[in-house]
Amino acid sequence: MDGKVRDLTAGTVILVGAGPGDPELLTVKAAGAIGRADVIVHDGLVDPRILALAPASARLISVAKSRARHTLAQDSINALIVAEALGGATVIRLKGGDPFIFGRGGEEVEACRAAGVAVEVIPGISAAIGCAAEALLPLTHREAASAVSFVAGQCKGLTEQDWSGLAGKGRTLVIYMGVATAEQIADKLIADGVSPGMPVAVLEKGGRPDRRALRTLLADLGGMIAREQVESPALIVVGEVVLRADAEDRLAAFEKQAEHLA
What we know:
This protein has helices at residues 28-34, 48-51, 74-86, 105-114, 127-134, 182-191, 221-227, 254-261, and strands at 12-17, 39-42, 59-62, 90-95, 118-122, 145-152, 170-176, 199-204, 212-217, 234-238, 248-249.
């Protein structure tokens, strides 16, 4: 592709990554597509400043999801964007982060292709990359980590999964959607061999004015999230790179305790 937004013709769906929240982190291509949309089907995490880039004539349809409540089931979202496109609209499916990283973008692309609808994907800065950058937290570092893994913290059979090897010396683990299951996640990682003293960061509401970056130990992850009343969206980062972040420590003498628990 030549990097330009293609001519937006009737019957087109474009999955657009809105990034972690800050509208200045949109790609030029994403901003151009949003500005020429007929219909925007957007997630609840998309910043209102990004939605404001839509034409006055565009219809905005929220399909916001939360852990306990979905405005529409995924099958219904698929049907919605396909129907709008078949009706002649240029549909922007606007998602926080990147459509293909825990964004269900693959399912939506498959639905469009099955219906014969032209579909395109414009990537966005993922939450992991954007939020880590804000916190000055390098996900890789020559002296600390040469591998990164992304996992979902809300999934069926969490305790049965084998996470051994995903976190530990020389590795960084980034957990999406893990606030509600943080204590189980910590227990699971420790059971799979990760030290209770492994540094952990929680990056809350990245890309927003009220964002926070907090740092603790793996053994205290669930306790800190409860004490600090951390709210979604938030990422959990596990690994030695956390010690290099610009984050607020939530345990006294952090490094001393880490050495004690290691």
